[in-house]
Amino acid sequence: MAGALCDQRRELLLQLYRAALSAVDGRRRVRAALAANHDDRPVSLLAVGKAASAMTQGALDALGERLVRALVIAPDDALALELLALPHISCLAGDHPVPGARSLAAGEATLAFASATPAGSRVLLLVSGGASALLEVLAPGVTFAELQRLNEWAQSEPVDIVSLNAKRASLSLVKAGRLPGLFRNADVEGLMISDVPDDDPAVVGSGLLASPSCRVTLVGCLDDALDAALRTARVRGLNPRRAVSRLSGDAVSAAHDACHEFAVGGWNLHLWGGETVVRLPAHPGRGGRCQHFALAAAQQIAGHPELVVLAAGTDGRDGASDDAGAIVDGGTLARARDAGYDAAKCLADADSGSLLEAAGDLIYTGPTGTNVGDLVMALRLK
User: What is the pTM of this model?
Assistant: First the structure.
């Protein structure tokens, strides 16, 4: 009976997670944003980011034959087959999370696409998280090695996103609001899915859309996802609370703080959103910040069968793994020990994914068509 109850709790958290993802689905949100616009001019479209394919599909749904040409730049596994089959849409895979040769090739393709855009055209720029690595045009005198060193450093060290974007912009001809300017004498509009605090166009994708010449519409963000999870929880009869502040800082410390906040509160469901960081060792194992957070939470709730915690990214990928995150419970550490894993060692080695796989706790979704940050949900049901 205890196992059945645990499964029910896990399924409930997964339902809330799916509701959050649906609320910020790139296809759905872009389709809705464009549906009321009756501009009959032909449209050129550039989409870049983890949600680029889904956002482009939404534009196709709304614009139909008015969408005459498009360039879509996304991670390998996030290029939709539907788009690959269309002759007027070019799809390219950029490198992520560290930019590589394909990111520079995507930059060259972007320059060519922009220069071929007729004057007076309507241009849609669709940008979501992940765009910083996927697309790059280096400033004169900047070497590819400099670009890689900056991004590798950002992957291994806790770093403020504003400071990081300033460094990225100094190397780039498209970041910090320079992208819209490539489409000279065109009517440029941006649609953005945000994965950053305050949903600032100057920060999403290192500020690709942050130009006075580009009207920017926010079509999806973390608040939308959390609100959807909150509504769904109430419909399911839960007494939920949404955290006031975003998750940030060290993943282990954030997990400890969140578990304490939940333990002393009077709610049976607590929701958080944001992004933590993990300081990686020289040779990290499998996993990412959500799995790292989940394992640290599992240490806090060990032996409490009434508690279950979900930590997962909204993009469907978590660090150096194909998994979105994990759901842990009071028995996670015991199952891991039975399989020969030690939680403290796995945290030190940044190898949380291996332990969580052995415990049966990983969440796999594949690409989700969105990217608004990470979600954490803690549930207490006896």
Answer: 0.94
